[in-house]
Protein backbone atom coordinates (compact mmCIF):
# COMPACT_ATOMS: atom_id res chain seq x y z
CA UNK A 1 0.00 0.00 0.00
CA UNK A 2 2.84 2.35 0.90
CA UNK A 3 4.48 1.65 -2.47
CA UNK A 4 1.22 2.43 -4.30
CA UNK A 5 0.78 5.74 -2.45
CA UNK A 6 4.41 6.56 -2.97
CA UNK A 7 4.05 5.93 -6.72
CA UNK A 8 0.93 8.07 -6.90
CA UNK A 9 2.70 10.83 -4.96
CA UNK A 10 5.58 10.94 -7.37
CA UNK A 11 3.18 10.85 -10.33
CA UNK A 12 1.12 13.73 -8.93
CA UNK A 13 4.29 15.61 -8.09
CA UNK A 14 5.48 15.26 -11.68
CA UNK A 15 2.17 16.56 -13.05
CA UNK A 16 2.22 19.47 -10.61
CA UNK A 17 5.75 20.37 -11.66
CA UNK A 18 4.79 20.20 -15.33
CA UNK A 19 1.75 22.43 -14.77
CA UNK A 20 3.84 24.85 -12.77
CA UNK A 21 6.26 25.43 -15.64
CA UNK A 22 3.59 25.78 -18.36
CA UNK A 23 2.84 29.47 -17.64
CA UNK A 24 6.52 30.38 -17.74
CA UNK A 25 7.03 28.44 -20.97
CA UNK A 26 3.94 30.04 -22.52
CA UNK A 27 5.14 33.48 -21.52
CA UNK A 28 8.44 32.85 -23.26
CA UNK A 29 6.62 31.71 -26.39
CA UNK A 30 4.50 34.88 -26.62
CA UNK A 31 6.73 37.61 -28.08
CA UNK A 32 6.48 41.20 -26.99
CA UNK A 33 4.68 43.48 -29.44
CA UNK A 34 6.71 45.38 -31.99
CA UNK A 35 7.01 48.95 -30.75
CA UNK A 36 6.43 51.38 -33.61
CA UNK A 37 6.72 55.16 -33.54
CA UNK A 38 4.51 56.99 -36.04
CA UNK A 39 5.54 60.53 -36.98
CA UNK A 40 2.76 62.66 -38.45
CA UNK A 41 2.11 66.29 -39.23
CA UNK A 42 2.80 68.93 -41.81
CA UNK A 43 1.44 70.13 -45.08
CA UNK A 44 -1.38 69.04 -47.29
CA UNK A 45 -2.85 65.97 -45.56
CA UNK A 46 -5.45 65.09 -42.92
CA UNK A 47 -2.90 63.81 -40.42
CA UNK A 48 -5.22 64.53 -37.52
CA UNK A 49 -7.39 61.62 -38.67
CA UNK A 50 -4.94 59.55 -40.70
CA UNK A 51 -2.70 58.92 -37.68
CA UNK A 52 -5.56 57.11 -35.94
CA UNK A 53 -6.55 55.22 -39.11
CA UNK A 54 -3.00 53.93 -39.44
CA UNK A 55 -2.63 53.04 -35.77
CA UNK A 56 -5.92 51.11 -35.66
CA UNK A 57 -5.31 49.40 -38.99
CA UNK A 58 -1.80 48.21 -38.18
CA UNK A 59 -2.60 47.11 -34.63
CA UNK A 60 -5.61 45.13 -35.89
CA UNK A 61 -3.39 43.19 -38.30
CA UNK A 62 -0.24 42.43 -36.35
CA UNK A 63 1.24 42.26 -32.87
CA UNK A 64 2.32 45.89 -32.99
CA UNK A 65 1.81 48.81 -30.63
CA UNK A 66 1.91 52.15 -32.45
CA UNK A 67 2.83 55.29 -30.50
CA UNK A 68 2.24 58.62 -32.20
CA UNK A 69 4.11 61.90 -32.31
CA UNK A 70 1.88 64.43 -34.05
CA UNK A 71 2.02 68.18 -34.45
CA UNK A 72 -1.01 70.15 -35.55
CA UNK A 73 1.01 72.15 -38.03
CA UNK A 74 -0.04 72.31 -41.68
CA UNK A 75 3.10 74.06 -42.88
CA UNK A 76 5.91 72.52 -44.93
CA UNK A 77 8.21 72.80 -41.92
CA UNK A 78 6.23 71.25 -39.05
CA UNK A 79 7.91 71.58 -35.67
CA UNK A 80 8.17 67.88 -34.84
CA UNK A 81 9.76 67.50 -31.40
CA UNK A 82 12.20 64.89 -32.72
CA UNK A 83 14.18 67.57 -34.54
CA UNK A 84 17.54 68.09 -32.89
CA UNK A 85 17.28 64.80 -31.00
CA UNK A 86 19.21 61.96 -32.69
CA UNK A 87 18.02 59.60 -29.93
CA UNK A 88 14.32 60.11 -30.65
CA UNK A 89 13.86 56.44 -31.62
CA UNK A 90 15.26 55.01 -28.38
CA UNK A 91 13.13 52.09 -27.20
CA UNK A 92 11.38 51.58 -30.56
CA UNK A 93 11.71 48.73 -33.04
CA UNK A 94 10.64 50.66 -36.14
CA UNK A 95 9.89 54.24 -37.17
CA UNK A 96 6.95 55.07 -39.46
CA UNK A 97 7.58 58.33 -41.30
CA UNK A 98 4.27 59.87 -42.36
CA UNK A 99 5.27 63.51 -41.97
CA UNK A 100 5.17 66.09 -44.76
CA UNK A 101 8.17 68.33 -44.16
CA UNK A 102 9.26 69.46 -47.61
CA UNK A 103 10.97 72.59 -46.34
CA UNK A 104 12.84 71.10 -43.40
CA UNK A 105 16.20 71.43 -45.09
CA UNK A 106 18.80 71.89 -42.36
CA UNK A 107 21.47 69.19 -42.97
CA UNK A 108 21.98 68.80 -39.20
CA UNK A 109 18.28 68.11 -38.62
CA UNK A 110 18.22 65.66 -41.53
CA UNK A 111 21.23 63.85 -40.11
CA UNK A 112 19.52 63.59 -36.71
CA UNK A 113 16.37 62.15 -38.34
CA UNK A 114 18.49 59.57 -40.17
CA UNK A 115 20.70 58.63 -37.21
CA UNK A 116 18.48 55.83 -35.80
CA UNK A 117 18.22 54.26 -39.25
CA UNK A 118 21.96 54.50 -39.72
CA UNK A 119 22.24 52.65 -36.42
CA UNK A 120 20.00 49.85 -37.72
CA UNK A 121 16.44 50.75 -36.68
CA UNK A 122 14.08 49.84 -39.57
CA UNK A 123 11.91 52.40 -41.30
CA UNK A 124 8.52 52.53 -43.00
CA UNK A 125 7.82 55.57 -45.18
CA UNK A 126 4.41 56.62 -46.41
CA UNK A 127 3.46 59.00 -49.20
CA UNK A 128 4.72 62.52 -48.43
CA UNK A 129 7.69 61.16 -46.50
CA UNK A 130 9.25 60.84 -49.97
CA UNK A 131 9.15 64.62 -50.36
CA UNK A 132 10.65 65.51 -46.98
CA UNK A 133 14.10 66.74 -45.98
CA UNK A 134 15.14 68.05 -49.37
CA UNK A 135 17.15 71.02 -50.54
CA UNK A 136 19.10 72.17 -53.54
CA UNK A 137 18.25 70.87 -57.00
CA UNK A 138 16.44 67.59 -56.41
CA UNK A 139 14.68 67.52 -59.79
CA UNK A 140 17.59 65.63 -61.39
CA UNK A 141 19.11 62.29 -60.32
CA UNK A 142 21.55 62.86 -57.49
CA UNK A 143 24.79 60.97 -56.93
CA UNK A 144 24.89 59.01 -53.69
CA UNK A 145 27.56 61.28 -52.21
CA UNK A 146 25.68 64.53 -52.88
CA UNK A 147 24.98 66.54 -49.70
CA UNK A 148 21.27 66.64 -50.54
CA UNK A 149 20.96 62.93 -51.40
CA UNK A 150 21.10 61.44 -47.90
CA UNK A 151 17.33 61.17 -47.40
CA UNK A 152 16.88 59.62 -50.85
CA UNK A 153 19.66 57.14 -50.12
CA UNK A 154 17.72 56.05 -47.04
CA UNK A 155 14.46 55.76 -48.99
CA UNK A 156 16.07 54.03 -51.97
CA UNK A 157 14.12 56.21 -54.39
CA UNK A 158 14.22 59.87 -55.35
CA UNK A 159 10.95 61.63 -56.16
CA UNK A 160 10.42 65.31 -56.84
CA UNK A 161 6.68 65.78 -57.34
CA UNK A 162 3.33 64.57 -58.62
CA UNK A 163 0.64 65.43 -61.13
CA UNK A 164 -3.13 65.85 -60.76
CA UNK A 165 -5.17 63.34 -58.79
CA UNK A 166 -6.50 60.49 -60.92
CA UNK A 167 -7.05 56.79 -60.14
CA UNK A 168 -3.88 54.68 -59.95
CA UNK A 169 -3.91 51.06 -61.12
CA UNK A 170 -1.54 49.26 -58.75
CA UNK A 171 0.20 46.19 -60.17
CA UNK A 172 2.46 43.99 -58.06
CA UNK A 173 5.52 43.25 -60.13
CA UNK A 174 7.19 40.79 -57.72
CA UNK A 175 4.55 38.34 -56.56
CA UNK A 176 7.03 35.96 -54.94
CA UNK A 177 8.20 38.54 -52.42
CA UNK A 178 7.16 38.01 -48.79
CA UNK A 179 5.46 41.42 -48.66
CA UNK A 180 3.37 40.92 -51.80
CA UNK A 181 2.61 37.18 -51.76
CA UNK A 182 -1.15 36.71 -52.07
CA UNK A 183 -1.94 40.41 -52.50
CA UNK A 184 -4.16 41.35 -55.44
CA UNK A 185 -3.80 44.29 -57.81
CA UNK A 186 -6.28 47.09 -57.27
CA UNK A 187 -7.16 50.55 -58.51
CA UNK A 188 -7.28 53.47 -56.10
CA UNK A 189 -9.67 56.37 -56.00
CA UNK A 190 -8.32 59.69 -57.28
CA UNK A 191 -4.82 59.84 -55.81
CA UNK A 192 -1.51 61.62 -56.16
CA UNK A 193 1.05 59.66 -58.18
CA UNK A 194 4.66 60.43 -57.27
CA UNK A 195 7.29 60.46 -60.01
CA UNK A 196 10.53 58.43 -59.97
CA UNK A 197 13.59 60.60 -60.57
CA UNK A 198 16.01 57.85 -59.54
CA UNK A 199 15.81 54.35 -58.07
CA UNK A 200 18.82 53.39 -55.96
CA UNK A 201 20.66 50.12 -56.67
CA UNK A 202 19.87 49.04 -53.10
CA UNK A 203 16.11 49.27 -53.73
CA UNK A 204 13.87 46.43 -54.89
CA UNK A 205 10.57 47.51 -56.54
CA UNK A 206 7.47 45.58 -55.50
CA UNK A 207 4.66 47.40 -57.30
CA UNK A 208 4.10 49.86 -60.12
CA UNK A 209 1.24 52.33 -60.47
CA UNK A 210 -0.25 53.29 -63.81
CA UNK A 211 -2.19 56.53 -63.99
CA UNK A 212 -3.87 58.06 -67.02
CA UNK A 213 -3.80 61.86 -67.03
CA UNK A 214 -6.63 63.49 -68.96
CA UNK A 215 -6.86 66.90 -70.61
CA UNK A 216 -9.60 69.44 -69.96
CA UNK A 217 -11.84 67.69 -72.45
CA UNK A 218 -11.56 64.48 -70.45
CA UNK A 219 -9.46 62.73 -73.07
CA UNK A 220 -6.32 60.71 -72.20
CA UNK A 221 -3.28 62.96 -72.48
CA UNK A 222 -0.46 60.84 -71.07
CA UNK A 223 0.16 57.76 -68.97
CA UNK A 224 2.49 57.74 -65.98
CA UNK A 225 4.02 54.44 -64.89
CA UNK A 226 6.02 54.73 -61.65
CA UNK A 227 7.18 52.47 -58.85
CA UNK A 228 4.78 52.89 -55.92
CA UNK A 229 6.07 50.33 -53.38
CA UNK A 230 9.56 48.99 -52.73
CA UNK A 231 12.06 47.62 -50.25
CA UNK A 232 15.46 49.13 -49.58
CA UNK A 233 18.53 47.99 -47.69
CA UNK A 234 20.05 51.14 -46.18
CA UNK A 235 23.73 51.25 -45.29
CA UNK A 236 23.99 47.54 -46.06
CA UNK A 237 21.86 46.39 -43.13
CA UNK A 238 18.79 48.49 -42.28
CA UNK A 239 15.51 47.31 -43.79
CA UNK A 240 13.31 50.08 -45.16
CA UNK A 241 9.85 49.72 -46.72
CA UNK A 242 8.16 52.57 -48.58
CA UNK A 243 5.07 53.37 -50.60
CA UNK A 244 4.16 56.61 -52.36
CA UNK A 245 0.45 55.79 -52.10
CA UNK A 246 -1.68 57.32 -49.34
CA UNK A 247 -2.82 60.90 -49.88
CA UNK A 248 -6.55 60.65 -49.14
CA UNK A 249 -8.26 59.21 -46.06
CA UNK A 250 -10.28 56.73 -48.10
CA UNK A 251 -7.09 55.23 -49.50
CA UNK A 252 -5.34 55.15 -46.12
CA UNK A 253 -8.37 53.34 -44.65
CA UNK A 254 -8.55 50.84 -47.53
CA UNK A 255 -7.97 47.32 -46.20
CA UNK A 256 -5.71 46.58 -49.16
CA UNK A 257 -3.51 49.54 -48.32
CA UNK A 258 -3.34 48.64 -44.65
CA UNK A 259 -2.50 45.02 -45.52
CA UNK A 260 0.38 46.22 -47.70
CA UNK A 261 1.95 48.60 -45.20
CA UNK A 262 1.52 46.18 -42.29
CA UNK A 263 3.35 43.50 -44.24
CA UNK A 264 6.01 46.03 -45.14
CA UNK A 265 6.44 46.87 -41.47
CA UNK A 266 6.71 43.20 -40.48
CA UNK A 267 9.28 42.62 -43.23
CA UNK A 268 11.30 45.64 -42.11
CA UNK A 269 11.37 44.23 -38.57
CA UNK A 270 12.30 40.72 -39.75
CA UNK A 271 8.95 39.30 -38.61
CA UNK A 272 7.58 38.12 -41.95
CA UNK A 273 8.15 34.60 -43.29
CA UNK A 274 8.99 33.99 -46.95
CA UNK A 275 5.40 32.83 -47.58
CA UNK A 276 4.04 36.22 -46.52
CA UNK A 277 2.78 35.08 -43.12
CA UNK A 278 3.81 36.82 -39.91
CA UNK A 279 6.22 34.87 -37.76
CA UNK A 280 4.65 33.04 -34.79
CA UNK A 281 3.24 35.48 -32.29
CA UNK A 282 3.06 38.45 -34.63
CA UNK A 283 -0.27 37.83 -36.40
CA UNK A 284 -3.63 39.08 -35.15
Which terms would index this structure?
284 residues; alpha/beta; Rossmann fold; two-stranded antiparallel ribbon; 6 helices; 11 strands; 27% strand
> Into which percent range does the helicity of residues fall?
25-40%
Quickly give the CATH architecture of the domain at 32-162 and 196-206 and 227-268: 3-Layer(aba) Sandwich
Order of helices and strands: HEHEEHEHEEEEEEEHH
- Number of DSSP strands? 11
Based on CA inertia axes, which overall geometry fits? globular
Strand content: 25-35%
Strand order of the largest sheet: 2-1-3-4-11-10-9-6-7
Please give a structural write-up.
- This protein is α/β, with parallel strands linked by helices.
- It has a domain at 32-162 and 196-206 and 227-268: Class I glutamine amidotransferase (GATase) domain (Rossmann fold), CATH 3.40.50.880.
- The protein is 28% helix and 27% strand.
- The chain has helices at 2-29, 47-61, 107-118, 150-155, 249-252, 255-268; strands at residues 34-42, 64-70, 94-100, 123-126, 157-158, 166-172, 186-191, 198-199, 203-214, 220-234, 238-243.
- The strands form two sheets. It has a nine-stranded mixed beta sheet. It has a two-stranded antiparallel ribbon with strand order 5-8.
- Helix 2 packs across helix 6 (255-268).
- It starts with a helix and ends in a 16-residue tail after the last helix.
- Residues 1-27 have low confidence and may be disordered.
Amino acid sequence: MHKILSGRFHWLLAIGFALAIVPAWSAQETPKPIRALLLAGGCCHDYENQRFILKAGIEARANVVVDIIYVKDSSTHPALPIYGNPDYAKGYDVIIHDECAADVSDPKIIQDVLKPHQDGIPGVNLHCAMHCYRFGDFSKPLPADAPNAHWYEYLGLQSSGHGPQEPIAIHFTDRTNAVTTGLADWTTIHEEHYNNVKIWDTAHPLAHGIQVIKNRAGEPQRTNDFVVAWENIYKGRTRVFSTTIGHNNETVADARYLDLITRGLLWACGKLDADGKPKPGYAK
